Structures
1.
Amino acid sequence: MMSKHITRKRIAMFAMLLFPFVAGGCSMNPATGKKHLIFISQEQEISIGTEAAPEFEKEFEGKVPNQELQAYVQMVGSKVSAVSEREGIPYEFTLVASKIPNAFALPGGKIFITAGLMSKMTNERQLAAVLGHETGHVAAQHNVMGMQRQVGVAVLVDIAGQLAGEDKAGAAEAVTKVVAGMAGLRYSRNDEYEADELGIRYMTRAGYNPWGMVELLTVLLNLSESEPGSLTEMFQTHPLTTKRIEEAKEIIEDKHKDFSPTKADPNAARFLRMRRILFSAVSELAEK
Ligand SMILES: [Zn+2]
């Protein structure tokens, strides 16, 4: 362990020599308590996510064109993100029209859930679980570190610089690189466990029954058995194993004993009303 620590320190020093003007650095993540080497500042992280969001949204067939639905997803997302640890992140939750079940988080707090995923859920705490899980990826900075791996640190720092500058064409090219990098991003199993744990923490703090996380993971697992092709994309970015369900159960049984898995979600009726609106907004979903 000791040598690992020293190695990290040496890497940090080496990085500072290489990138003397980089705004980031080695800091402790407030959500996980872990030390990470991040090469861009929080401000740069937010600007990269903000710039990439419109193109990312287009990739998933654009926003579902219904104000009430968007406001509802934003309301549930705001509840879970408001109680997460990183300060100054402008979380924003968008329901996109893609029928393929999936959810994503861009660096800086732009979070997307597809109509395909929302249509498979049966209550609000399951929605809170997905949005809490994605908030967890942002809070733990998994996606920033993922981009550093995927796009490369030097390129990422370059992108951040271009976005801050006057070079509009350079910035547009930079955004395309980010979107491609994010689309190819694979979280590790450990990132997934950590995002589940943070999701459980946030949904509980926000007043939701954390068993919604186990329900959600079970819905996905059943779906992977009944419609194996439909979740390929989601499982590439967020690996799902039965072990994730076991781990989530263990956390809830250990830390949130007061909640019962059999108690009905008091907000289920509200969710189902929204799901009906979603079915009529994205008509092909209703035909299934
Ligand atoms: Zn995930």
2.
Amino acid sequence: MKTMIHVDNLCKKYKGTEKPAVDGIGFDVAEGEFFALLGPNGAGKTTTISILTTILSKTSGTVTIAGLDLDKNTAQIRKNVGIIFQKPSVDLNLSAEVNIRFHACMYGMYVYRPFFSWMPKAYQNRVMQLAEIMGVEDKLRRPLKTFSGGMRRKIEIVRSLIHHPKVLFLDEPTQGLDAVSRRSLWEYINQTRKEEGTTIFLTTHYIDEAENVDRICVVKNGAVLISASPQEMKNSLLKKTLILDAQNRESLIVELREGGVQPQISEKQIAVPFNEATPMGILGKLKTPLTVMRTVEPTLEDAYVSLITEKENA
Ligand SMILES: Nc1ncnc2c1ncn2[C@@H]1O[C@H](COP(=O)(O)OP(=O)(O)O)[C@@H](O)[C@H]1O
Ligand SMILES: [Mg+2]
């Protein structure tokens, strides 16, 4: 697969600070991939995304986007990326469409015209096409201050995609949105991805938002902790757990201990962590009749929390 974003040993030290905000980060994002940079507040996500979108200069390291070197082809890269900032960046007094028009003209795509109908057909068609995907086609002429937070985000997405970027960068795009708006925003982003083949680069500290991405890169203190698919992350980081119980608990516990496993005993249940694909190694040896037997799979959040805290204690 073609590499869309290549980052190697990227560092950023803000003036007057002791510790680098980004401290040797590296990763690759394939064309069309849905990639998530996941990490707690202060991890360096916004700094990284600002460098990749040419808003902020790096201290050192290599970045290429769509085969273009960040140091040499800044203007070209800018044409290839769309950005949705952590903080909304729209003019609330203007209509949705005028916000979009300003942006497109600022990118040098078109000469500004004071009316939508005076803009080139290509612009008009593109706005309508994206507005339909986002379900805002009937609201384009209304001032943005009459929009809900979720609706404003949708306009920002239209705006960020107007110039057909190869990569869409989203910096915590659902912050401050309610659960319903969050969900519909993801549906729209996925639809855009399907229809336009856009590579998506997302930063978030909501673990559940990373559940459906292709690959997650977890960062903390400016460094990469792990880079893996959500499933790999769950598999590699956590043991599954076998939940058991028996009428004759004592005998079950003795049997487990004799079998070399350490059961975690509570009033409610007996839990046995296991590593293999199936717990047959443990179950096969048991003679005590069981009343409860089920396995519990870790969630991505379990994996993430264990990863973040494990490194803290290390
Ligand atoms: N303009 C700045 N000047 C100095 N330090 C900054 C600046 N912006 C961010 N930082 C620091 O850099 C680190 C990473 O911040 P940031 O990239 O915003 O993290 P995140 O987006 O993951 O929350 C933090 O310690 C933050 O305080
Ligand atoms: Mg941030």
